[in-house]
Fold this protein.
Amino acid sequence: MSERLADIAVAMVADGRGILAADESTGTIKRRFDSIHLESTADSRRDYREMLFRADDAMRNYVSGVILYDETIRQKAKDGTPFVDILKAAGSIPGIKVDKGAQPLAGTQGEQITEGLDGLRERLAEYHQLGARFAKWRAVIDIGQGIPTYNALAANAHALARYAALCQEAQIVPIVEPEVLMDGPVATHDIATCYRVTELTLKLVFEQLYFAGVDLTGMILKPNMVIAGKDSPTQASPEEVAEKTVKVLKACVPPAVPGIAFLSGGQSDEVATKHLSLMNELGGPLPWKLTFSYGRALQAAALKAWGGKPENVAAGQRAFTHRCRMNALAATGRWSADAERHAA
Ligand code: 5MM
């Protein structure tokens, strides 16, 4: 595969393909395993990720790249094959989460700043050697009484831009992920509020990317959809979510960016698929690809079907492959409830 940043970015959003976010940090994967009453150990994490990465049909046909966690990019399958080799053999690009998580931002009422810039140049050089060709950094923007503040938005946009510039210097495509939460501590906001906050967030992020000299043709944006908070009494229709999301992206994302790969953010599997498909179906001609970079919405059914039991590996892989196929259809605007039921 080409090593040019722009070529890697284009491959990450190739027609009918999207990204698997499997970069849960140790605390997050523990919470996921708690839901199936499985202890989180290096071996159980390996077995789970091996199940996903060896779902050959999914990896070959629908998944362009996988975001890994530091442990996972160094990990081997049970038979000793490095995970990175399994992904590459299936034609999927290995990626790596390089942020060190969100921490309280001093001087704010509970807002967060994502950390991990110190030593990042050296870590990126090592990750490149380990096979990573793209990276991810997630900024967390919460909506609530009086928040987000400009201070928190600007600090996070600046950190995202510094991260992206360091990635490109290391010949790694940055996924720039500013997530406006739909499931924060007080998630009662309506869709109009999410629109306003997402618009301001994206404007500030692209301003900082410009100041940092980031080449937009060699990056991928991973945004939230424009959607009401999960506890909002006024939930918008799927058509309105699709319409408003495309509208804000057209207002904020330069056409030089090759692709936008959404996070699912707490939406149910099928709803996240439907929203993506509607955007591709109804959005009109778009200057960038719109696809998925889902974590929960690709993995939830597979995790449940697997349940931590070796005898359920095939069932877990079937559930995972099904979700990948449905989202691949959505990435070209061809998903339907019929396809969902028929294939299931
Ligand atoms: C897979 O979850 C990612 C890692 O989260 P932690 O650092 O908290 O462990 C997360 O960044 C994820 O890549 C994105 O939020 C997209 O995942 P969802 O589940 O929202 O699609």
Observations:
- The longest strand covers residues 134-141.
- DSSP finds 14 helices and ten strands in the chain.
- The two ends are 34 Å apart (CA to CA).
- The mean pLDDT is 97.
